[in-house]
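Protein modeling request. Please complete all fields; requests missing the sequence field cannot be processed.
Requester role: graduate student
Desired output: 3D structure, C-alpha cell encoding
Chains: 1
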Amino acid sequence: MKKRLIGYAAVLLAISMLAGCGAPAAGTGDTAGSQSGAAQSGASQAEGSQAGTSQADSSQSGASQTDASQNAGPEGASITFWHSMGGVNGEALEYLVNKFNSENTMGIQVEAQYQGEYDDAINKLKSAQIGNMGADLVQIYDIGTRFMIDSGWVVPMQELMDGDGWDKTQIEPNIAAYYTVGDTLYSMPFNSSTSLLYYNKDMFDKAGITQAPQSLGEIGRIAGDLVNKGGAGEPISLSIYGWFFEQFACKQGQNYVNNGNGREVAATAVEFDQNGAGAKTLAAWKELYDKGYAPNVGREGDAGLADFSSGKSAMTLGSTASLKQILEDVNGKFEVGTAYFPMVSDSDKGGVPIGGASLWALNNEDEAKKAATWEFVKFLVSPESQAYWNAQTGYFPVTVKAHEEPVFKENLEKYPQFGTAIDQLHDSTPQSAGALLSVFPEARQVVETEIENMLNSGTSPEEAASKMAQQINKAIEEYNLLNE
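Delivered output (484 residues):
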C-alpha cells in the first residue's frame, strides 16, 4: 500500500503544482497554515500532561522514559519538526520550542522548520517520502488525517502514549474524537479550532435585536432590520469556504461521506447528495445571496473578515482562532459578539467538527528520535504549554487541565468571547467529529468552485450538490483504486 500511496502522492503533488491551488483548511477545517499564522496578523484561522506526574516531571526532569525508548533513550537526540505556523502563531510556537530546548534535562534539541501553508507542508512531506524522510514530527491539517493514516509512514500517537502510560483522557474528548479511529489516536491534537458566528453588537442594539441568530433562516429574518435600522452595509459577509459547508452538514446531524463518515472504513463516496444535507445547505445559502443579504465576498475562510472588522457587515463566520485578531482590528470601534456556528434551519440538531491541525510522529526507525519526539509532544500538550498557546493564538487548549492554569483564566477574563468557543465545543458530541476523507483538499476546492458557480451563474442548489458529488466521487474512486 505504501508504494501505491507514494505514487499517488507524486501524482497529487504534480497536479497541485500545475493547478497552483492551495486549499485552506479550518479546517482548516480551519484556514491554511500560514493563514493560521496570519490569523493574528490580518487573516483568518482558528484553536502536559499529568498522567500521574506533571509536565515538568515527565518531559523536563528526564525521570520518565517511554517503552519505545528502552532500546535507545532520548538523551542527546536531535529531531526535526515541520510546522505551518507563521506570524504571531509562529512566534508563539518558536517560544515553546526554545523553552523545551533550554529546559529539558535530557539534552534533546528540536529544530523547528516552517514549511509554508498546510497544503505546502503535506505536499513537501509526500515528496520527501518518495525518497527520504525529512522530519521526525510534522504538523498536518485536519483534512490530511485520512491520508496520513493510510500512508503507513507514521507511528500512531496511541503507541507512544500506551508505552508511557499516558492517559488519553487528558485530551478534550471532542477534540480527540476527530483523530481517533477505532480505539487508536493516530496523531496528537495541537492547534484545534471550531467556527463561530461573529456579530456587531452595536448594530444589533440599534436594530432592536437582542440575541444572535441560531440558523441561516433566522439570519434571513433579521437581515432587513440590520440594514434599515442597524446601519449595516450588508447583513453577513459569508466566505465561500469548504469548511463551512462541512460544518453545515454536521449541524444537520448528517454525514459528509459514507461508511460512518469515513471512520468505519475508508469512504467510497460522498453522502451529502443522498441525505439532502448538501442541497439544503446550498438552498439556504443561495436564498441569502439572492436577497442581497450574503453577497459574494470571495473564497477561503478569511474572505469575510475584512467587511466585518471595518463595520460594513453585521455578521461573519470565522474560526475561533480569528477572535483575537478581530478584536485587535476592530480596536473598540464596536462591541464584538460571538455565538455558536448557525444551523441551516431552526430544527437542526447536530454539533460542530473541529479544524486546525495535529502532530504526527514519522516512523524513521530510530528509537532515540522516536522517544525524543514523544517527550517534545508531551511538552507541547502540557497544561502550561497549552494555556500559553491558547492565550497567544486563540486555539483551544487541547488538554483539559489547561483550564486550571492562571494564564488561561486571565485570558478568558480579559476576552470573555473566548468562552463561546469553549462552550460550543463542550456542547457538541464526538458523533459530530466530522468526516475523514483521503481527498479532502481536492474536495474543498470542488465545493468552493461549485458554490461560486451557483451564486454567479444561477446553478440550482440541487445541481450544484450533484456536481460536487460527481467530482469528489471520481477523486475518491481514483484514490481508492491506487490504494487497494
